[in-house]
Amino acid sequence: MGGSIMNRRHFIKNILAGGTGLYMGAAPFSLLAKEGHKVVTIIHTNDLHCHIEPFSSSREDMDGKGGIARIAAYAKHVRAENPNTLLLDAGDMFQGTPYFNYFKGEVILKTMGQAGYDAGTIGNHEFDNGLEGILNALPHASFPLVSSNYDFKDTMLNGLFPRFKIFEKSGILIGVYGLGIELKGLVNENNYGNTIYNDPLKVALEMETFLKKEMNCHLVVCLSHLGHSYEGKIISDLVIGKETSHTNLVIGGHTHSYLKEPVQVKNKKGEMVLVNQAWWGGLMVGHIDFVFEAGSGRKSSIFANKLNG
User: Fold this and answer.
1) What pLDDT is attached to residue 28?
2) What's phi and psi for 145, nearest 5 deg?
3) pTM for the complete prediction?
4) pLDDT at residue 1 above 90?
5) Does domain 3-307 match CATH 3.60.21.10?
6) CA 188/CA 43 separation, integer angstroms
7) Rg of the chain's alpha carbons, rounded to an integer?
8) CA distance 282 to 48
9) Whether residue 132 has pLDDT greater than 80
10) What is the H or E stretch that residue 101 is in?
């Protein structure tokens, strides 16, 4: 990669990371598109927990921040700058505010659709009202909930969750797959019934190979509700990043991890993978730009997480 592009990368990264509020200035798209580069922007959240409205809190870093409306405004701004944008979520949309107590999953899924979400995956709290609670909520989702390692074939949810989704943005194919956490011991068995939990790493290897080799995706994104990292042998976002070969980005959830920027790890091929998580409740928005260089088609990444306030 040429020095001029590297200098722009650091310049843009510093601008994006410089403020504590939502960034509303010049994006990489406006600087690089003129040179024939293609930029795909990934905006993401996790663990929204039905926080449709901003927080009311004595904590300065939370009060007046978060919520779907601010996410929607930010997504609208980014898409106006770069139409090659995806808004994704890594699960646990349900539970957490009276909106869920009174309306179950209906209101959060409707508002996420109105905010422009392109896809999400499911977390353990989606099972809080059992399989029937998920079934009743799904018609209100105008975007796919991708689930690759939960097998619902012997349940009322059979056939309702795609294992992957492929998006096309200006000729760039983005393949998305989703991984859920082990439900046994975390969720009441009556709430997930005959749902089969398949090993997430084995499924990740299967899905990334399919998306990269058979579907010719330029970017492969994992929506993970496994948790950022653990001691011992528990499979986490970081494990998925390190033990795969074709996944470019792991968008995590479950552990409500506050990361100032994505963690960079080397995969099995020695290539860089970004592993990110955006706190919770919509308090933070992950923002990652994948830049495809003109001519060579090589990609680099520019990133910054932003406090949603």
Assistant:
1) 54
2) -105, 110
3) 0.89
4) no
5) yes
6) 32
7) 19
8) 6
9) yes
10) helix 98-103
Is the Cβ–Cβ distance between 110 and 99 less than 8 Å? no
Would you give the end-to-end CA distance of the chain in angstroms?
A: 35
Q: Tell me the C-alpha distance between 107 and 289, whole Å.
A: 30
Give the model's pLDDT for residue 296: 62
Under 8 Å between Cβ of 105 and 125 = no
Residues in contact with 61: Cβ distance below 8 Å, sequence separation at least 6, in sequence order: 283, 307
CA distance linking residue 79 with residue 232, whole number of Å: 41
216-227 confidence digits (pLDDT tens): 999 999 999 999
Find out whether 105 and 94 touch, Cβ atoms under 8 Å: yes
Per the CB < 8 A criterion, the answer to whether 55 and 88 are in contact is no
Pick from 279, 275, 222: which is nearest to 255 by CA? Answer: 279
Place of tokens 């439900």: 183
The confidence score (pLDDT) of residue 129 equals 97
Q: List C-alpha distances in Å: 3 to 6, 7, 9.
A: 5, 6, 10
No. of helices (H) and no. of strands (E), the chain: 9, 14
The domain segmentation of the chain, as residue ranges, is 3-307
Cα separation, 67 vs 57, in Å, equals 13
Q: What are phi and psi of 242, to 5 degrees?
A: -80, -30
Name the region of 251 (left: φ>0; alpha: ψ -120 to 50; beta: rest). Answer: beta
